[in-house]
Amino acid sequence: GQQVMQIPQYQHVQEGEDFTTYCNSSTTLSNIQWYKQRPGGHPVFLIQLVKSGEVKKQKRLTFQFGEAKKNSSLHITATQTTDVGTYFCAGLGSNYQLIWGAGTKLIIKP
Amino acid sequence: DTGVSQNPRHKITKRGQNVTFRCDPISEHNRLYWYRQTLGQGPEFLTYFQNEAQLEKSRLLSDRFSAERPKGSFSTLEIQRTEQGDSAMYLCASSLAGGDEQYFGPGTRLTVT
Q1: Which of B29, B21, B41, B36 is CA-nearest to residue B4?
Q2: CB within 10 Å: which end of chain A, N or C, has fewer?
Q3: Which of B98, B101, B104 lies at the smallest CB-CB distance from A42?
Q4: Is the omega angle on the peptide bond into residue A8 within 30 degrees of 0, that is, cis?
Q5: Which residues of chain B, if any, have pLDDT below 50?
Q6: Searching chain B, which residue's CA lies closest to the CA of residue A105?
Q7: Which of A98, A105, A106 should one mutate to test binding to chain B, selecting the residue with the greatest count of B CBs within 10 A?
């Protein structure tokens, strides 16, 4: 079946350092969505990318969708303590269901 | 509308008991999804509804699990003869249409002892 792999599983950064998480799909996706889940919370929608090669920015967050619509990345510049949480990608597959990555947990080192 | 709500927020039950959870989606949303999430994992799809019709059910879902959305508004998820492996966070989400962003409720945390 369709799968979305997300790496790394964890990333420890010092506050102020950058953070990146990557998603790769086994098949072409109709779109890809990104969610953030704070510790003890539920997933919250961040953004949706639809077009091949699309790049979108939200303040310090940059989201990219690959040319083949099989991979995506989220990059956070100059992390802050408020960025702590787990970031999930979710790709829309051929059956119009979201296929979720396992998430990347962002941990800010004290 | 304040978003997706779920009740109860926590449920502790003994193995073998039945439990039922409720989800109230955003009122104008046609799609309603149930997910299960365990620690350190992403949401695992269980089933979804388009209005009152249950359109897909995960192959991973055993016959002990059943969901309804009788009037196309709120939904219930029932687990019969609970097992310790059913312990997880059960999340409900809704969306306006398929492929749109999903809005999640706070979840129901189930602990089976």
Answers
A1: B29
A2: C
A3: B104
A4: yes
A5: none
A6: B40
A7: A98
